[in-house]
# Entry
Amino acid sequence: MDPNSRRSGRSPRSHPVPFGEVDHRRIKGIATRGVRVLGQKGELGPSILDDVVVEEPLEIRVAGDALAITMRTPGHDEDLALGFLFAEGIVSSAEDVGRITHCGRPGDEGYGNTVDVLPGAGAILDPDRLQSSRRGTLITAACGVCGRRSIDDLLERLEPFEVQDPASPKVSVDVLRRCTEDLREEQPNFARTGGVHAASLLDREGRMLAVAEDVGRHNAVDKVVGALLRQQRLDEAAVLVVSGRVSFEIVQKAAVARVPIVAAVSAPTSLAVDLADRLGLTLSGFVRQGRLNIYTHPGRLAGVD
# Structure
């Protein structure tokens, strides 16, 4: 199916369904809802089924204590929780985690809406470090900056990347030229709904190490980071690829994961560019059809004059 069909209002389904009724015949992360299409002449068509992305809250707990809530697409919730806790400095490796369990309301669209992260043998998970740097009692995982006392609180753990050594291996700019197209090929839920973001992690040769879709791009990043952290392969990652724009928190998550290059389909924000420049991270945007903008530190890329 052409992903652009979502923009034109066409639906891949054609059999009638009562308006607003739910059809649970779906693949993971996708539900169906009744929709009526308004034609160009104002005529309202019959109700048909349309694929929509699932969005459900996920509460992340640490040893039974509620820490964060994020609106996510169900699937790979353990990786999401692990990646989020890693980005926030609560865990430093997969060994810090003994078990991640699902609990809460089950259901076709929101299975396991709570995950509880239990510490591994000898590990101490201290969510107070995160809570003490923010206002309020419960964190919204969708915002890495909201509620912080200062940006310095957020940057205190971020180590700048070393200036690129001319003799060290570089990543070919051709890897970046094709990375968003490669990502699009791994987005089955986007192809059906047009409503999800995606992220992937690549090695220096452009091989895809992990990929995930989610209604939130920050969740997609946490999922791929968590997946490689769990596999103990995060040190192989050289490029983070994201659909959509690059915000401050995407650069933050890349920096914590020690991924030196971020490439995005759309634009970065001013704060994302400033942070990437400050940290020595290579940031590129508008990576489409073989073209890209390089905002910071192009010296990490081979093939750039």
The two ends are 39 Å apart (CA to CA). The helical segments are 77-87, 128-132, 151-155, 173-184, 188-193, 217-231, 248-256, 270-279. The chain has three domains: 3-53, 56-155, 171-302. The chain has a mean pLDDT of 83.
